[in-house]
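Hello,

Our lab assistant flagged a job as stuck in the queue for most of the afternoon. It eventually completed. Since we weren't sure the result was trustworthy after the delay, we are filing this so someone can double-check. Below is the sequence as submitted and the structure that was eventually returned. Let us know if re-running is recommended.
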Amino acid sequence: MRNSAFWKRGALLVLAGVFAAGCTGPGIFETKNVAARKGLNKDVAARKGLMKSIGKTWKAVKKAAKAGDNKAAGKAAGELYKLSGKISKVFKNKGGKSRSKPNVWTDKGKFKQRAEFLAVSAAVFSQVHSKSGSKAMVSKGVKNIGKNCGGGHKTFRAKKKKKM
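-- returned structure --
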């Protein structure tokens, strides 16, 4: 008798914990699509996710290069190369509300070229500049990546609307 009451209380506590975890927000059993929850088009969510990852990785490259950690900067640039290789793939389908200009889809060749420039500059930095040991080479490589990244923004991304 004593054991059965123990197990009943234990089971009740476990059930209460599972219920509480389920009520607090997304958990391990969540199956809903994040894009749908945020009201985003699936394609837009993929593009935004990739671009945010590229932005974080680019910041890591700059931070490591500024600190003089060329190995970490080269590693982050290698990741930037991998991510930037996916840009033209996630921009295949037009749709949804985003800051992408229409010329992303009307001038696909130029858009793909800009993405490739970014990928190549990140690869060159990762394989050459970061291993050179020269501050000037590292600085030149960082500027080159920034120029290629910013060039795509100027041509293919609309400015952020100011909130009033």
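-- support follow-up --
The delay was a queue issue, not a problem with the job. The result is valid. The chain has two domains: 1-31, 40-156. Residues 128 and 137 are 9 Å apart (CA to CA).
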